[in-house]
Amino acid sequence: MEFFKYTKTFNFMGKSKMAMAISIILLLASYMLLVTKGLNYGVDFAGGTIVQVKYDTVAPIDEMREKLKDNKIFDGASITEFGSADEVVVRMKTTTSDVEVDVGDVTREALKGTGNYEIRRVDIVGPTVGAELKEKGVISLVLAIVGILIYVAFRFEWRFAVSSIFALIHDISIALGAISLVGLDVNLDVLAALLTILGYSLNDTIIVFDRIREGVTSSKKTDLTDIVNESVTRTLARTTLTSLTTFFVVFTLFMFGGEIIHAFAFTLLVGVVVGTYSSVFVASPILIWFGFDVKGYHIKLAQKAKREAEKTRMRDQYESGIM
Amino acid sequence: MGKLNFRIVVFGLAIIFGIFFSIPSLFQLQDGKKVTLGLDLQGGLHMLLGVKTEEATKSRIKSITASIKRFSERKDILVDDLKFDESGISFTLLDIDDVKNMREFLKETDGLNIAVNGESFSINLTKKEIARTEKEAIDQAIETIRNRLDQFGLAEPVVARQGAEKILVQLAGIKTAEDEQRARELISRAAKLELMAVDEDRIARVNTMSDSDASEYGDVILEDSKNPAIKYLVHEIPILDGGMLTDASMGFDQNNRPLINFKLNAEGAEIFGDFTGKSVGKRLAVVLDGKVYSAPNINERIGGGSGQISGSYTVMEAKDLAIALRSGALLAPIYLMEKRSVGPSLGADSIKASMMALVGGFVLVIVFMMVYYRMAGVIANIALIANLFILLAVMSLFGATLTLPGMAGIVLTVGMAVDANVIISERIRELIYEGKSMHKAIEEGYANAMRAILDANITTLIASVVLYAYGTGAIKGFAITMSIGILASMLTAILGTHGIYQMLESKILKSKDNKFWFGIKG
Question: How many domains is chain B partitioned into structurally?
Answer without folding.
Answer: 3
